[in-house]
Write the structure tokens for this entry.
Amino acid sequence: MICVILTLSVDNRVEDGRLNHLFATWRMSYIGAPKHEGCIFCDFPAENRDGERYILHRGMDCFIILNLYPYNPGHLMIVPFRHTNLYETLTDGELLEMNRLAARSIVMLKRVLGAGAFNMGINLGKDAGAGVEGHLHLHVVPRWVGDNNFMPVLADTRVLPEAMEETYRKLKTGWEDEAGF
Ligand SMILES: [Zn+2]
């Protein structure tokens, strides 16, 4: 009789010591999916299937999309439609809308998910940890008491208790309820 024991790590601290890939059943489709050719922040809005791409809102200059590899449920990214990784070239309109959408996201995430704190930031360039290095994006990560003691790098991920679809549905409804903000 041959006995095979498989061990799966649910919290893989990978070789470089950063909290990185992890196993959750709902993420297997992403892990197994072919790598996207091109820029997701240009291509996803152009596809006009916002529900499948978890695009939460489209503004004039920026849009909001859920992070496919979220640090926490409700981890959003606010992204200019224009393909650039040069923050210093953002127009006044892009800068203003990016920050207004961040403020509105915070109001919504507090109300809908009960988030008590937030991490916000941009990883500018690969060496700073940008996952999509050619197209800058502002992360908004809701936090809760006890969810983790610190946040090592914005680009990192960890196990989530809730599926993306469920989070997207809640936030989409919540965003529309926040329309008067
Ligand atoms: Zn792009």
In short: Residues 39, 41-42, 83, 134-135 surround zinc ion (CB under 6 Å).
